[in-house]
Amino acid sequence: MALWKPDPSFYPSPKMAMAAPPERHAFVAALNYGRNDKPDAICVVDLDPDSDRYATVLNTLELPHVGDELHHFGWNACSSALCPFAPHPHLERRYLVVPGIRSSRMYIIDTKPDPTNPHITKVIEPDELMAKSGYSRPHTVHCGPDAIYVSAMGSADGEDGPGGIFMLDHFSFEVKGPWEIDRGDQELAYDFWWHLAEDVLVSSEWAKPHQFENGLVPQDLLANKYGHRLHFWDLRKRKLVQTVDLGPQHQMALELRPAHDPRKAYGFAGVVISTEDLSASIWYWHRKDGQWAVDKVITIPAVPASEDELPPALKPFGAVPPLVSDIDLSLDDRFLYVSCWGTGELLQYDVSDPLKPILAGKVTIGGIVNKTPHPKAGAPLLGGPQMVEISRDGKRVYFTNSLYSTWDDQFYPDKMGGWMVKVNVQPEGGMALDPDFFVDFGETRVHQIRLEGGDASTDSFCYPS
């Protein structure tokens, strides 16, 4: 729907977004694949501390099909709509664009007139998506200035590559087609982000569908066959310009988080695991001598553990890897949050100097060995910090515990359920679990979170703070 004035949740700069009203509810992807015959759902969670339903599920929108496996859904439009080179300020942040990575089906979900009672307004079926985009397994959604961008893990034939990016029309949600004009030797896909002021898109690598749909393939991991490169593209020409290899031992270069300030042409990438020592790592990309350079700035070591404490997949190694599965950067570009899904830790780093991150805070919950409980739950918890979302003002961090159904079963084989928690952040660093916020989803697992009005991993800004 078009508006006469820009949506009030669109902000020219990160600083203006940080002054926005607090979020009152979240939309959360709830997953049932492999657990029962129920479809996945989008749950609406109450985030208002003054509400009598705080930290509960207000509503659940069940989807019409079973087995979609919802993943990294996003908004149809965001603050990038105000960018001067491709303005469309009369859109509104209204629709959730929700991909099913396992089914290759996508849902367009309307959050109006009542955002706590969303409803499906359009379904893009797998045959249509694959025929028009050339891809399958849609994964991550970003609201771009000229279209809605969606990454995909597989080619249209299903099992192979290359994976890449396709585009949806902002108004009709029709599949416009593949984004790439010249992809060079890029074959694996995962996340993507951009520096709009630099006309640069950055993409990362995970795997082909047969390497993740039925779980992690140990022989492929040990042979370094998962992704380990970052790709830098000309955003307007849609052409691959440069590829940087992090080293084949740095397996699964996944989440990307660019600086929010458009004057800063740098960002961070998370690597899940090193096949040399089971460590995880954070990498910093930046300009150097006219090219893109990538430096490792954080190493998180594995933790020794006895064989009887470990799931079968880890018994031969005698340790718990951190398994960094998500990262998120606050809107002021000061704090980077790192999910260690294996060890059950959420780490907070001060990245004011991005080349010299300083550990500023840590919370522990879940974990393969420790299963640390939440103060409100009391009982041991399966899973660990996974998908992270930061409020616009940076004072609150929310996270869920499910990575991907078959991977959940490999690393947490004791029937992991779903939960969501909240962390309160101190202005100068440091954080603590909110003892009153714990949402138990039972056997349904939960993944991506989106906050009312936008969040730290949704919007792109074209004006400096």
Describe this structure in words.
By secondary structure, this protein is mainly beta. Helix content is 5%, strand content 40%. The chain is built from 4 helices and 30 strands. It has a 4-stranded antiparallel beta sheet, with no helix packed on it. It has a 4-stranded antiparallel beta sheet with strand order 4-5-6-7. A hairpin with a 5-residue loop joins strand 28 and strand 29. The longest helix has 8 residues, at 126-133. The two termini are 29 Å apart. The model has no long low-confidence stretch (mean pLDDT 95).
Q: What is this structure's SSE topology?
A:
Blueprint: H1 14-18, E1 25-31, E2 41-46, E3 57-62, E4 74-75, E5 95-100, E6 105-110, E7 119-124, H2 126-133, E8 135-143, E9 148-155, E10 164-168, E11 175-178, E12 192-195, E13 200-203, H3 218-222, E14 229-234, E15 239-245, E16 250-258, E17 266-274, E18 280-288, E19 291-300, E20 303-304, E21 319-320, E22 324-329, E23 335-340, E24 345-350, E25 358-364, E26 388-390, E27 396-400, H4 405-411, E28 419-425, E29 431-440, E30 445-451
Antiparallel strand pairs: 1-2, 1-30, 2-3, 4-5, 5-6, 6-7, 8-9, 9-10, 10-11, 12-13, 13-14, 14-15, 16-17, 17-18, 18-19, 20-21, 22-23, 23-24, 24-25, 26-27, 27-28, 28-29
Please supply descriptive tags for the structure shown above:
4 helices; four-stranded antiparallel β-sheet; mainly beta; 40% strand; globular; 465 residues; 5% helix
